[in-house]
Amino acid sequence: MLNEALKIKNLVIKNRIAIPPMVCFNWTDENGYVTEKNIEHYRDLAKGGAGLVIVEATSVAKKAKLHENELGIWDDSHIAGLKTIVDEIHKYGAKTFIQLVNAGGNGPDENCDVPTRKEYRGRVRGVEMTEERINEAKEEFVKAALRAQEAGFDGVEIHGCHGDRSSCFFNSRMNLREDKYGKDKSLFAKEVLKAVKAACNEDFIVGIRIGCFEPTLEDGLEHCKEVAPYADFLDVSYGGNFDAFTPDGFEGSAAVYGAKCVKEMLPSMPVFGVHLINSKEACEKALSYGLDMVDVGKAALVDPAFANHVINGDREEGHCLHCKNFCKWNPNEMANPNVKCPGFEKYNRA
Fold first, then answer.
1. What pLDDT score does 338 carry?
2. Model-level pTM?
3. DSSP 8-state secondary structure symbol assigned to residue 130
4. Collapsing DSSP states into helix, strand and coil, what is residue 209?
5. How far does CA 343 lie from the centroid of its chain?
6. Residue 124: its pLDDT value, please?
7. Which of 5, 16, 173, 270 has the greatest CB tally within 10 Å of its CB?
8. What Rg value do the Cα atoms of the chain yield, rounded?
9. Crossing angle of helices 187-199/131-151, nearest 10°?
10. Which residues are registered as beta bridge partners of 95?
């Protein structure tokens, strides 16, 4: 199935390999404008054969960033640079979405907006959102999606996992609200998706990256079922404060197992799977579980032409060596141009 096309609404994606959103920290500055380095990065990934390239988590508001130096889409002045990325990706026959993020308590701003002010990852930060602020936050997503549409993206992916603001609304361990957003943990995400779809063109794709364990598998499946009527695809990953597991004998990560369960529950919904999908065999195994698309992250960073290599079988693909703090892509290291990727060097892909 790797080389089979996938149709989402009227959008045809040429194969089943997607590049998931991976933030290139420190490649821009606090203003969030696209740089030549960003353009070259996405050009290489699209040239490498992936059917879909999801541009990294891009902040919908200046106050909502994951990192001080992160791409932005909070102002019309960001559109031109993002359009340059879109044009490069389309040039090689790939389709492209952009992930829209509000980092919430995951970001550097101590006064960021959070569903509930609570300790998370060893720190307490943020200001509990009023309903007025929630409505403003939804509008930030809508305006960002309209900018993405103007830039030429084929769709957007709302960031709803990994402990960002939307993820914390989903998660019962983080969302302790007593209002309607506490009683219905999926409500914020449903309202964002509904508002974005209403504002954008009918053919514009609107999906969400969502945790299958948020915090448990049962919770994650319920959230997926709740948001499904408002989404064109579900990109399934992990939650923020979660309990992940795989059954004995399952071949693949817990996220892939969760995605398999989502697909079984929602057979007509396009479902993406992620995590430890770093070889042709892993891609094929994930697709054999019924998934519609595989997200290949680290392997594509090591070898941007991963998709071409596994589809055409013309050479061995590179492999991530899990170098952790020595990784070229470590947020603390990426500002240093002298840091090299051993995976690139080992497989002669420098």
1. 59
2. 0.93
3. P
4. strand
5. 23
6. 72
7. 16
8. 19
9. 40
10. 52
Beta bridge partners of 59: 72, 101
pLDDT value at position 335?
47
Is the omega angle on the peptide bond into residue 20 within 30 degrees of 0, that is, cis? no
Strands 11-13 and 6-8: antiparallel
pLDDT digits (tens, 9 = 90+) for 35-45: 999 999 999 99
Helix (H) or strand (E) holding 341: none
Place of tokens 């915090």: 215
What are the residues whose beta carbons fall under 8 Å from the beta carbon of 338, sequence distance 6 or more? none
Positive/negative CA dihedral, 303, 309, 315, 320: positive
The average pLDDT across 77-102 equals: 98
Give me the residues paired with residue 7 across strands: 12
How far apart CA 212 and CA 276 sit, in angstroms, is 16
CB 155 within 8 A of CB 145: no
Q: How far apart are CA 187 and CA 125, in angstroms?
A: 23
Query: Which amino acid, 166?
Result: S
The tokens describing 54, both together, are 């999801």
